[in-house]
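Deviations from the work plan: none for this task. Representative record:
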Amino acid sequence: MRIEKHPILTFEEKKILHFTFNHQSMTGFEGDTIQSALHANGIKKLSESIEHHRPRGFYCAIGNCASCDMTVNNQPNVRTCITMLEEGMVVLSQKGKGVL
Amino acid sequence: MTYKIIIIGAGVTGCSIAYNLAKKGMNDILVIDKSYLTAGATGRCGAGVRQQWATKANCIMAKHSIEFFEHAKETLDYKGDIEFKQEGYLILATTKEEDLQFAKNVALQNSLGIPTKKLTPEEALKIVPHLNPKSFISATYCQTDGHLNPFKMTDAYYQAAKKLGATFNFFEKVLDIKHDNDIYTVTTNKGIYQSEILIDAAGGYSREIGLMVGLDIPVYAEKHEILVTEPISKMQGPMVMSFTKNLYCQQVPHGSFLMGRTTPNQPKDHDISSSHEFLDEMAKTIDDILPKIGELRVIRQWAGSYNMSPDKQPIICESDELKNFYIAAGFSGHGFMFAPMTGILISEMILNLPLSLETVMLHINRFKHQTTHEVEKSVV
């Protein structure tokens, strides 16, 4: 899922961060957004449409579209594509509009 | 073109008047609006409907209007949903003086059959748990107050009036009105129309319409701002309101919160621009009273014109100076919630039917006489 070899760029090794997604342990790297870490872990379905519960994937990636809204550390509607991953984060996918 | 009646303004007031006239058999009506349905104050309002007022006139108008809203969908045979949410208004008292005033208000409201209760902070917190308990000293609560969708409600009136034969002309601006030989001649940017009866339901522009026929209606437009947040699962039933802290805040069925407050010292004009001062002050107010709501993102802010009258109560009457000129103006921010009664009263006046309510206190004459009159204090 991650580009490891590139003809021009090099990727230095970064610190590993641990987090959970829907109670499942996962790892990412320092400098990841929550979303890039989830993507690297093969998570493609990020949320569901409110009315018909159709799957929603990675879409705008700039914090505008709400497709990647998740509950992070009990905070609902976090735009995970623009939120940096932190050690120990508890990330839950969200059904509906989130609970404050 | 000649009509029996011309109504200026297709907000909720104009549409309610058109519907009530048409329902009583008077469907030779033209409604003219300079923009689209609900383009003015109606479509910009907070759309709360409450009966908790400090003056008798407002209490009675509101009570009868809410009784209409309860059955509006069936009465108007509307296909859509007017989204009437009847979960009350919780009004907070924050000072000793306000607490005393509210005790009087509750007594007045109860005497008129409005089921308001006075609550301790503990009781209020049971209804809205995320209130900051330090931000108020007591509250009043009326379960039958509520909220509905102003676009859908106006559309319901509009569809019903049209079905009964009323004509609506949108995007047509009234430029001039002449009154000769008991006939009103209304010139717009698109045509000339004549009628026997003219109704001024022009909201923020009521005064300007009056001036076209030489009537000095003592009302003026004043900007009021409002914002909406992102939606969240339902967490608040009633509208939370405070007059002293200057706030109203309601969660609509979609999940968004609507909130507004009055910015003091607004100029008397038609400005409806959004300001960062409002956003700043609104955020501070909400952080004080409903801190949890402060965590939500703001999606959008906008503004609309209140049509202010000197005593903050509506003017609903026929003009004394000008025969067959009817005024439905000066609602001071409450035209939407009073609209059902406004339509009923104006239609009864025009058709010489017995009036559903005593309307002396709604007559424009009250400002001419030297007698003191009650000023409504329960206003945000």
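Chain B touches chain A at residues 230-233, 235, 255, 292-293, 295-297 (CB under 8 Å).
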